[in-house]
Amino acid sequence: MKKTLSPVPPKWPLSLLRLFIKKDYLEEIEGDMEEVFRDNLELFSVKKAQRKYVWEVIRLLRPALTRKLSGTQRLNNGMIRHNLLLTVRNFMRYKNSFFINLTGLSTGLACAFLILLWVQDELRIDKFHEKDDRLYQVMHNLNHTEKVMTITSTPAKLASAMAAEIPEVELAASVIPTGWSSDNGILSIGDKVIKAKEQYASEDYFNVFSFKLLDGDKSTVLSQKNGIAISDELALKLFDTTDDLVGKSLEWKKGEFSGQYQITGVFEKPPKVSSSQFDLVFQFQLFVDNNTYLEQWWNSDPSTYVILKEGTDLAAVNSKVEKFIQTKIERSSSTLFMHKYSDRYLNGQYENGKVAGGRIQYVRLFSMIAILILTIACINFMNLSTARASRRFKEIGVKKAIGVGRRALIAQYLGESVLLSFASLLVAVLITVFFLPTFNQIVEKSLSIQFQYEFVIAVLLITLITGLVSGMYPAFYLSKFKAVNILKGAFDLGGSGSRKGLVVFQFSVSIMLIISVVVIYKQLEFIQSKNLGYDRDNIIIFNNDGELGENLETFLARAKDVPGVINAAAFGHDLMGDHGGTSGLRWEGKDPEVRIGFGNLEVGYDFIETVSIQMLEGRTYSRDFQAEQSKIIFNKAAIDAMGLSDPIGKKVSFWGRERQIIGVSTNFHYESLYKDVEPCFFLLGSGLSKTMVKIRSGTESASIDAIHNLYKEFNEDLPFEYNFLDDDYQAMYNSEQQIATLSKYFCGITILISCLGLFGLVAFTSERRLKEIGIRKILGSGSFRIVYMLSSDFTKMVLLAIFIALPLSYFLARFWLDGFVYRISLEWWFFVLAGFIALVIAWMTVGIQTFKAANINPVQCLRDE
Amino acid sequence: MKKTKLGEFEELVLLTVAVLAEEAYGVEIKRELESRLKETLSVGSIQSALKRMEEKGFLTSEFGEATSKRGGKRKRIYSATPYAHRVLTEMKDIRSQLWEAIPQPITSFQAV
Predict the structure, then answer these.
(1) Is residue A762 part of a domain?
(2) Which residue range forms the structural domain that includes residue A703?
(3) Predicted ipTM?
């Protein structure tokens, strides 16, 4: 007969039981508990029975049943009261160091909590999907000769082909995400008009992702071409309800997709922790029908997501997927790989076709900063309590003489620091609550303190560890002395070496942070002022909504007539990294093995002039010529990469068409400065979605008003929403801006805490040397001499800190800057400046105290000798 | 009344011990009371009541048999002391006297 293992009660509550319950009762109660557990097993699941067991154990911990303290343990009550009293008295007596410690620890803890909230939120993003562990995005590697480019665009037929041909794939969905075009469409019913962001998704979308459908069926909601799923938020705005909307029709205006659509479902607006945000979902096939080029495997656009079957070996699937495109088109050099969807938010950068970090770096960086700030606050406590040790030596000596063990003393001091850290916790929570709105503004999140047990436990643990860490060193240091020596007064205080070491550490960290802030700011300034090869000042951008899009040429002509408008042009792709691409270009004399990726910018007439991109050769698109649609303009990088000499008039062919080169522009940055300028070309596009207008500086408000009025002539009902090109450009470096702002604050806090510690130390040393100072003054020493004497020690420490911090921060700064292709060089003065700031701050801190000490009247400090 | 007081819950437990006689051990008392009171009780509440009453002299106890269901641990069988019986009877008498002392008409309150 096979013996089955019966479930047992969980282990740890049992040991808790054995620890606390009176010995005489233990056998009986353990037996009772076991019996109740077995009874529960018959009624509930194993899990629930175990949970009930834990709860029962907790309810057993009551005075009538728990062990009384026995023997010497009984003294503990008194000792605890005694220690608590001493702690409070110490706090009261040395208010200075108490407040320094309290301020330091509570600001440190508050920073740590804010960062904890942020990190927690970052780690949660996209993890809410039910099948998260099996949800993958198919990534597309373009294997160009020079380098591998990883993109999310995949062939439109990939999802359905994978679902049909790869047995491990359970479900697959193609999605054209909201970002496919940068403008919003317009949704209307009756007289209600709303702009909305739409995406196109294939049938299984709501099965693959766990966005909640309030109305409609997951599997069929996206099965009609004229069907549309709308968010509850949109539904409320349009209909004031989310109920009974299925079957109602809406009008949608956006280029070729304009028309009447029927609501097939209402979904809950994607939660904040979703990286994909959308208001509307259309059927994917609709998009393909309007973009027939997608029917070919050669062309890529949609993102492809798959759910793998449970227990699938990822490596095995990846090997099948890698060459999947080649099973459709043999000549393709593209490869595919799977990347876990929820992992992409934090690890969304790719190098050489492999995952290479991303936002996770910032998560690590800030966790690191939180730890550093806390450490610095702990160091303050260590320094101040060991420095003040001499004050408490009598107490320790007497205690030791009457037989208090070392462990009891250690416990006493640890208790003291833990008590302090919990006092700081209260203040820290207040600080956190107070600064949370500001912090939210900076990081553009809506974090809130939620009393979930994970967070509460994390907070308590951090506080406890902070208390223990800061108390550890003083506790061991103070308890190690021999009672006889203490009471005889013959002992070497020592410890000043390690104290100095800790101060050096604090200042090294502060200096490193100062340098980081300087470098980050300089780099951002550089980015903002860098000559990008085009001019982004005084340019406004808006969508070619509604009627305006249909009468674009008229609008542009009239816009140019507005006084104050220098130029106006329509465009499809902006210069912020939104562009198409191809590697299928052929030209005369091309090496068939070479594959070059080109960026593709679809623009209208006058675009190049409007953003002032300089031409090296040839001309730009002009309304004066015929058949401009079959002309092409390259940038210099492209001509160089192709190796063409004398390019004007030569022909290239791609996308089944031949085009003649009419111009070559200078290189300009059409992507972020993290990337090099890649080869690209302009095409004259049709149905362009946006317009940019360049305005003479000084006439901004009048000109924008005039444009606004013009816009209203075309679109009476629509709101005129515009952006400045420059703002859009800044937005590209949003996360860097956030990092800069945050590191500025955190740097400030670190310096503040370090200085507090230094202040406390100096106050203490000068106090202890008061008599010496008095005697020196009587013997004729001047105030400055004394200031010098007192501060030279600290100056040396700060100098040492500078010495240590500079090389470290140099490497750190290099590492960060290496991510940018275009970056500042590290100037020597960054480092000198940081060192100087640190030194000045330290001097100011020390100075206040030393001058006070140096100017003291010797009579006051010597009178009681 | 005596100096040593018997709480309401304690009284219920004590009565259950008397009812169960030979079978009066922790879990059985808990089961019996749960079925009568129609609510769940924790092991802790029963045990602490038992221990308190043992201390006050209402109960005595001795080890009983061990079963595999109890993980080999022995039961502790409780029995009410004569003193407990006396106190219980006394309390019952006091209660019934009080009931009788309530002025008429009492029948209308019986539903409560």
Answers:
(1) yes
(2) 546-717
(3) 0.84
Region for A657 from its dihedrals, namely left if φ exceeds 0, alpha if ψ lies in -120 to 50, beta otherwise:
beta
> Is B107 part of a structural domain of the chain?
no
Our CA-based measurement puts residue A42 at a distance from the nearest CA of chain B, in whole angstroms, of: 13
Judge whether residue A5 has pLDDT over 70: no
Separation of alpha carbons A198 and A277, rounded Å: 9
| Inter-chain CB proximity B70 and A35 less than 8 Å | yes
Given the structure tokens 């303050």, which residue do they identify? A380
- The Cα diameter of chain B in Å comes to 57
Interface touch A34/B48, C-beta < 8 Å: no
The Cα of A2 is separated from the nearest Cα of chain B by a number of Å equal to 19
B26 vs A32, A38, A63: nearest CB = A32
Most distant CA pair in chain A, distance:
106
Please, which pLDDT band fits residue A71 given cuts at 50, 70 and 90? low
To the nearest whole angstrom, how far is the Cα of A30 from the nearest Cα of chain B? 7
Residue A490, amino acid: A
Q: Is the peptide bond before B105 cis (omega within 30 degrees of 0)?
A: yes
Which sign, positive or negative, has the C-alpha torsion A523, A529, A530, A535?
Answer: positive
Residues of chain B contacting residue A44, judged by C-beta atoms under 8 Å apart: none
pLDDT band at A10 (very low <50, low <70, confident <90, very high): confident
Number of structural domains in chain B: 1
CB nearest B43 (choices: A27, A60, A63): A60
Predicted pLDDT of residue A139: 92
Burial letters A767-781, b for 16+ CB under 10 A, else e: eebbeebbebbeeee
Give the integer Cα–Cα distance in Å for A560 and A577: 27
> Least CA distance to A57: which residue of chain B?
B44
Residues A754 and A708 in one domain: no
A10 neighbourhood in chain B, CB within 8 Å: none
B89 and chain A: CB distance < 8 Å anywhere? Answer: no
Could B47 and A29 be called an inter-chain contact, meaning their C-beta atoms sit closer than 8 Å? yes
Domain span at residue B61 reads 8-102
Q: Does B45 touch chain A (CB under 8 A)?
A: yes
Q: How many residues are listed for chain A in this entry?
A: 865
Q: What is the dihedral of CA A26, A31, A36, A38, to 10 degrees?
A: 140
Mean pLDDT of B20-36: 90
